[in-house]
Design goal:
536 residues; alpha/beta; 8-stranded parallel barrel; 24% helix; globular
Length: 536
């Protein structure tokens, strides 16, 4: 995550997707013949559960907690709250995150990590990235304890800004070595006998950004990342390491940064990171909701372009290893980006980046879930940024919490996208979007679990005015029964949830569709995100 300084770079690349149609971006999604001239044409989805894109890595639905604003303090950790347990963890937040089933959570940053020494454990210390005070009550050990409480795995961020490769290896030793070394014995001295065995690690954060503490050139960073990886793997050879890719298509060094970094460290890393935040602004979308709901397609393109760079370097090196992608920061974020929203004024737990999400934001998040699933062959890890209070699906106050609108599509992905992503064929009516091209009204992704025979379809209807008919054509055996048919929709795209109206925007069930002659037909409302799940 980057502070306000990166806005100026955003202005340079607002034409993301220009000249590249949605069909080119998605590959497996085709517009219906004649659909543009006949907007009432039903969308047809061909499903064959024998044809899949890739198994779904559960880490595709991870999240993120940074020492930023009220994400940690007053978010997941609040020792003075009547709602907290004896460890200071908010019990209501633990229950909510455990129920979601978030598989992996990135910590401690973000920009914060580039100025953070994990050994800082006592006394207030200023957070340089967000101009806030971090009391250091909550650190590595507390995070590991909290992860265990909510049933998730840690994705640990490393300081490659002001930090050194030696310090990175020391943290691995602290976390993963049982005993008999300097740092493992320190952990044991701190009361934790068993090692944490952390598998996934991020080698720094957004090091291409001039806003980043310790910003450096791509070659410098690539060499530092390679050095850190070598030293870390000397401590634990089983680690999965993620190099910093470009901060996004708005960067003037986009893709060239990735290539130069990988030329230095390809042999030592397993994945490359991507970041992206979208918004319905005059600059990005012309404040046009129809374009806004198609912006997830620019993420499809970003993934394709980044994969191309990874494979280019692989070819240059004649390497047998294929890198995967870690989309470890993604979300809607465009309102709380300036002024007091990003300046903590040297306070503890200031209210920073507390974006209020509306219905159209939730619909786009649904589209992003579809994008991530569609690219599950290469995207193996992704993190909704963030989880609590800071650009988050969960908001807290001293009396409880509520779910923002974006909570629902994220939770559906977590709960119902299981097994493998299906290789669907979609024929959909289309519309034209400036800077993107021909866009299908319906964005559809399907998953199939061979273990229990469940098929799930995730459907975004971008049409702001009309319901759309969907015709599911079962190319192999149709499932026996519908288990779930739920939709998120409403007449007001700007409607939001709050502590006073926590269910202003919430899912509703719709009539379970029936199947006859190998076809399942039903309607999805205008401006909606729906999920239908069938069982064997």
């Amino acid at each position: 995550m980057a502070p306000v300084e990166r806005r100026r770079f955003l202005q340079q690349s607002l034409a993301v997707g220009a000249g590249c149609s949605a069909e080119m971006l998605l590959g497996r999604i085709l517009p219906a013949q004649g659909a543009a001239s006949n907007p009432s044409t039903a969308a047809r989805v061909y499903i064959d559960t024998r044809r899949t894109v890739a198994p779904i890595d559960r880490n595709l639905f991870g999240s993120f907690l940074e020492h930023l604003g009220r994400a940690i303090y007053e978010g997941i950790y609040d020792p003075n709250s009547r709602l907290s347990d004896s460890s200071g963890f908010r019990k209501d937040v633990i229950a909510e995150v455990r129920a979601l089933g978030v598989p992996i959570i990135r910590y401690p940053g973000g920009n914060f990590v580039s100025g953070y020494n994990w050994l800082d454990g006592v006394g207030p210390k200023q957070d340089k990235a967000w101009n806030s005070i971090n009391s250091n009550q909550f650190g590595t050990d507390e995070f590991m304890m909290w992860c265990k409480a909510v049933g998730t795995q840690p994705l640990m961020g490393l300081n490659l800004g002001t930090g050194t490769p030696e310090q990175a290896a020391a943290l691995v030793e602290y976390c993963n070595v049982e005993k008999g070394t300097r740092w493992s014995d320190l952990r044991r001295k701190n009361g934790i006998a068993e090692p944490y065995k952390v598998e996934h690690w991020c080698l720094g954060n957004e090091m291409d950004g001039p806003w980043q503490i310790g910003h450096m050139t791509a070659t410098e960073y690539g060499q530092k990342a390679a050095d850190a990886a070598r030293q870390m793997r000397y401590v634990d050879a089983s680690l999965k390491l993620i190099a910093c890719g470009s901060s996004g298509p708005f960067m003037p060094t986009y893709l060239e940064w990735d290539r130069e970094v990988l030329e230095q460290c390809y042999d030592y890393v397993d994945g490359l990171s991507l970041h992206r935040y979208l918004g319905n602004t005059p600059d990005e979308t012309g404040s046009d909701s129809a374009k806004y709901l198609a912006m997830n397609l620019t993420m499809d393109r970003q993934i394709a372009e980044t994969v191309a760079v990874c494979d280019l370097v692989r070819g240059h090196k004649r390497s047998p290893k294929k890198l995967w992608l870690s989309f470890d920061e993604w979300n809607v974020w465009y309102r709380e980006r300036t002024g007091d929203a990003v300046n903590g004024h040297r306070q503890e737990a200031p209210h920073l980046l507390e974006e209020v999400y509306n219905l159209e934001d939730a619909l786009l998040v649904g589209g992003i879930i579809n994008t991530l699933l569609r690219n599950a062959d290469r995207v193996k890890l992704a993190c909704l940024a963030q989880l609590v209070n800071v650009i988050a699906p969960i908001m807290t106050n001293p009396n409880g919490l509520f779910r923002q609108t974006i909570y629902y599509p994220y939770s559906w992905g977590l709960q119902m996208a299981r097994g493998a992503v299906l290789n669907l064929l979609l024929e959909s009516p289309t519309y034209e979007v400036a800077g993107i091209g021909t866009v299908p009204y319906l964005d559809v992704v399907g998953t199939f679990s061979s273990e229990d025979g469940k098929v799930s379809l995730f459907i975004l209807n971008r049409d702001l005015a009309k319901a759309r008919e969907v015709d599911i054509v079962w190319e192999d055996a149709a499932p026996a029964r519908v288990l779930t048919s739920t939709v998120l929709t409403g007449s007001d795209l700007k409607a939001v949830n709050s502590f006073s109206s926590p269910k202003q925007v919430a899912p509703t069930d719709f009539a379970k569709p029936t199947t006859s002659g190998g076809h399942t037909r039903f309607e999805v409302p205008a401006r909606s995100y729906s999920v239908v799940q069938w069982g064997a």
